[in-house]
Automatic annotation (TrEMBL):
Binding-site positions, heme: 453
A Pfam family per the record: p450
An example Gene Ontology molecular-function term: heme binding
Protein name, entry field: Cytochrome P450
Record-stated family: Belongs to the cytochrome P450 family.
Organism: Mycena metata
Gene3D superfamilies according to UniProt: Cytochrome P450 (1.10.630.10)
PANTHER family: CYTOCHROME P450
The keyword Oxidoreductase is assigned to this record: yes
Cofactor(s) recorded in Swiss-Prot or TrEMBL: heme
Presence of keyword Thylakoid: no
Keywords: Heme, Iron, Metal-binding, Monooxygenase, Oxidoreductase
Length: 510
């Protein structure tokens, strides 16, 4: 106690804690229940629990509170979690100037800090628009290319015959196939088969996500100082410019020479971006960034969903034959087309069920309250200005109020529901219900409402075509009968399929 330094540090510590407490205290917020301890210091223990396994903490909150609760996800701030159909609906329809999707992305993925200011500053998110409109509209026209790439890619990675089973790690293999098939539509041949280009897209997503996860653990004012120590700057972006840049230069120069509708113009994402890009968006770096951004949102999400589906198929092999018969009968009548996929009701149901039980994260639909007065739900609950909000998607999918036997994998539950719906109601209604692409307040793998994933139509087409192709041409079984490789629970909200989990393949025997 005689040491004056100790006294000074103690006073400083008390002032810091008091300031922090004052900054975090808000009377309106006090009304929102806390998961775990509400005591000032011990609530910080929840941040540690949160980092270790957020999913359990969210499930605890869902079971205890059933509407809105908060959890100390980071040492310096609360995260708000919303549950229940009514609240989810209100969140999904709130205007952007009140509950902002964009501001939430910037908060959790500070792209300017992770990959550099010049590119991150581009506010015009043209790629969402092109995905929502041109990519979706062109799915029928581009289907033959998608199918061709699926056949070639699986031939290359599987290399199997009909006598011996080959046991392969699924996630890395599927990520390679999805990157290749997606890029057939994004950038076309030959780049979609260029190993360095594909690997850079995969690595960029991993690097950016990891760097962002680390940076956001620090308060905002410290982040610009921490970021340079954490990120590998924009190495992945520079590589993309080197590999994809010449293709884009070539498209730009053809447009300059022959106008926007030059003969032989490829029908791909580069062309669709160019159709809407203006001014500074029509430069090579800006266009490379958009393609890289699309790869970022498309490849990991789709690869995780497909890997989960393969693990589910291997663990529940009784589903294989009925789906194979369905694919065979549909293809016999209609051939391979986007429309034929719509008739594969069992395949669609299986993938939807797999997404219900394994949707990548414990939460979804991240928003930030940007209205100064906060966001008020119709029951009077107020989320304060600046709050980061999520929807408890996993707990919603596992709620027996929403699904019968919610923890049981039942691959054809949605096919049965659709059949029932057809039998009982106007069949035209069925188009919008219980399909893989249909979102609802109790089915959130793609979110729901106005920001629901615009790439889901493409993702569903790609994944269904891949799944149908595999089942038709290969026998598939678990490495150990009935055992599903365990999910990997990463820091924070993320729940990924096992990165090393294996499945056995051989060429179809019968
Ligand atoms: C199975 C694969 C996929 C899953 C599970 C998935 C899931 C999601 C989710 C949960 C959201 C956030 C919704 C919200 O916040 O309300 C989202 C947004 C988005 N996704 Fe996907 N996604 C997938 C594939 C794709 C693909 C293939 C593309 C592009 C081709 C894509 C493009 C986007 C974009 C651009 C957004 C942002 C939408 C906006 O800002 O309004 N996604 N996705």
């Amino acid at each position: 106690m005689d040491d004056p330094k100790f006294l000074v540090y103690s006073v400083l510590a008390v002032i810091t804690l008091a300031t922090l407490r004052k900054a975090l205290w808000d009377p309106k917020v006090d009304a929102i229940p806390i998961v775990g301890s509400s005591k000032f210091l011990s609530s910080y223990w929840n941040s540690v629990r949160f980092l270790a396994n957020a999913s359990n903490l969210i499930q605890q909150g869902y079971d205890e509170h059933h509407d809105v609760f908060r959890v100390r996800g980071r040492f310096f701030r609360w995260e708000y979690v919303v549950c229940g159909a009514k609240h989810i609906k209100e969140l999904s329809t709130a205007p952007e100037q009140v509950l902002s999707h964009r501001a939430a992305i910037e908060e959790n993925l500070p792209i300017r800090l992770v990959i550099g200011t010049a590119i991150g500053n581009n506010p015009h998110h043209q790629f969402e628009y092109a995905i929502r409109t041109s990519l979706t509209r062109n799915l029928h026209a581009c289907f033959p290319d998608v199918r061709d790439e699926i056949i070639c890619a699986f031939n290359d990675v599987l290399h199997v015959n009909s006598t011996e089973w080959k046991t392969l790690p699924v996630f890395p293999m599927i990520m390679g196939v999805i990157a290749r098939v997606s890029n057939r539509i994004f950038v076309g041949l030959p780049l979609c088969r260029d190993k360095a280009y594909l690997q850079n897209n995969i690595q960029f997503t991993l690097d950016v996500s990891r760097s962002a996860q680390r940076i956001i653990r620090f308060p905002k004012f410290i982040q610009p100082f921490i970021a340079p120590l954490i990120t590998n700057k924009n190495k992945g972006f520079a590589t993309a410019v080197k590999l994809l840049g010449p293709t884009i230069e070539n498209r730009l120069s053809k447009e300059r020479e022959m106008g926007p509708d030059w003969p032989g113009k490829p029908n791909d994402l580069i062309s669709w971006f160019l159709e809407i890009a203006e001014g500074a968006e029509r430069t090579t770096p800006a266009l490379v960034f958009q393609i890289l951004g699309t790869n970022f949102v498309a490849i990991h999400t789709s690869s995780m969903a497909f890997t989960h589906a393969l693990f589910d198929l291997a663990a529940h092999p009784e589903h294989l034959l009925p789906m194979r018969e369905e694919v065979e009968s549909v293809v016999k009548k209609q051939g391979w087309s986007k429309a034929a996929l719509n008739s594969m009701v069992k395949v669609d149901s299986f993938l939807r069920e797999s997404q219900r039980l394994h949707s990548g994260r414990a939460v979804t639909m991240n928003r930030k309250v940007v209205a100064k007065e906060g966001f008020r739900f119709s029951d009077g609950t107020i989320l304060p200005y600046g709050a980061l909000v999520y929807v408890a998607s996993r707990a919603t999918h596992y709620d027996e109020a929403n699904f019968e036997n919610p923890t049981k994998f039942d691959g054809f539950r949605f096919a049965r529901e659709r059949a029932q719906h057809m039998a009982n109601h106007d069949p035209t209604q069925d188009v919008f219900k219980r399909q893989m692409i249909s979102t609802a307040v109790d089915h959130l793998p793609f979110g729901t409402g106005k920001h629901a994933c615009p790439g889901r139509f493409f993702a569903a087409t790609e994944l269904k075509a891949m799944f149908a192709h595999l089942m038709l041409n290969y026998d598939i079984k678990a490495e150990v009968d009935g055992v599903r490789p365990p999910d990997s629970v990463a820091a924070g909200f993320r729940i990924a399929p096992s990165p090393t989990g294996k499945v056995c393949f051989r060429k179809r025997m019968d």
